[in-house]
Write a structure and sequence with these properties.
Blueprint lengths: L20 E2 L6 E2 L34 E2 L8 E2 L8 E8 L4 E8 L4 E7 L6 E6 L5 E3 L7 E5 L4 E8 L5 E8 L2 E2 L8 E8 L4 E8 L4 E8 L4 E7 L5 E3 L7 E5 L4 E9 L4 E9 L1
Parallel strand pairs: 3-5, 4-6, 13-15
Antiparallel strand pairs: 1-2, 5-12, 6-11, 7-10, 7-12, 8-9, 8-11, 14-21, 15-20, 16-19, 16-21, 17-18, 17-20
Length: 274
């Protein structure tokens, strides 16, 4: 992310990117009983494509790449520094399987979605090292999201139906936001390419008051905010939203999407939870 002076906004705040824990026995999220925006023991992820806090980078707009495997070997999908989303398009023959590899750290959030002309291209997802199956190839799913259980490559397989088709594979690895110990707020400075998105995710409790606001020089960076579990939209970029404030009705992860509605732009994302 590009760090820029806050002469226009607020001076001196920093962002921290961390994660949370997963109960392997029932796949439920585990948090301390008194969880607030305080510390959770976690090592910050070091994943290709996720920005390093404090590092200045030049954003590169995500490009839809047409990738076809050679001799059936999986093809790797790498994120450019500053990106949280990758899109891959191509063609697939009836009955064919095409595989891709993406790296993720333990307890990172992974979102995978595939679309196709015939709506009959389906997903399979598994760990390359431990062979953990996140999505069985027989499941007929076209979308999946969740915390990955281990640091490794994950193989994403597209399985075609009974006709030749195209496909559009979207992979999102949002940055996980956590406040500094004892803090109730954080400010994240970054850049978003023209007409592209940057994704963040955080956890908050029912009854807490959350405030999210995006600042940008031309006011053309917008906000989408929704709950992961219930899918309830709290703010919509399509409606021109740049901020949201309210009391949370449910404990869950929340997706924050920074949306460029114009040119490439720098932004400041202010978040308070108390």
């Amino acid at each position: 992310m590009r760090i820029f002076a806050r002469a226009v906004f607020v001076v001196g705040l920093t962002s921290l990117v961390y994660g949370c824990t997963l109960n392997r026995s029932n796949q439920s999220l585990v948090f301390p009983p008194t969880l607030s925006p305080g510390p959770i023991q976690y090592t910050p992820p070091v994943v290709s494509g996720l920005p390093t806090p404090g590092k200045t980078v030049t954003p590169t707009p995500p490009q839809a790449a047409t990738i076809q495997p050679v001799d059936g070997a999986p093809r790797r999908i790498d994120f450019t520094a500053g990106e949280t989303f990758s899109e891959t398009t191509g063609n697939i023959r009836k009955g064919e399987s095409i595989s891709f590899l993406v790296s993720a750290q333990e307890d990172q959030w992974l979102m995978v979605d595939v679309g196709s002309r015939n709506l009959d291209v389906h997903l399979g997802i598994k760990g390359v090292f431990d062979h953990t199956v996140l999505v069985p190839e027989s499941s007929q799913l076209t979308t999946w999201q969740g915390l990955v259980p281990a640091t490794q490559d994950y193989e994403i397989t597209l399985n075609a139906g009974g006709e030749d088709s195209n496909y559009n594979l979207g992979i999102t690895i949002p940055e996980i936001i956590k406040f500094a110990p004892g803090a109730i707020s954080a400010a994240i400075q970054g850049s978003v390419a023209a007409h592209q998105n940057v994704h963040y995710i955080l956890y908050a409790l029912a009854g807490q008051t959350m405030s999210v606001k995006i600042h940008s020089i031309d006011n053309d960076v917008l906000l989408t905010l929704y709950g992961i579990d219930d899918g309830q939209p709290l703010a919509r970029a399509a409606a021109g939203a740049t901020e949201w404030n309210g009391i949370l009705s449910r404990s869950q992860y929340f997706m924050i999407i920074v949306v460029s509605s114009g040119n490439s732009s720098q932004f400041l994302l202010d978040i308070t939870i108390q």
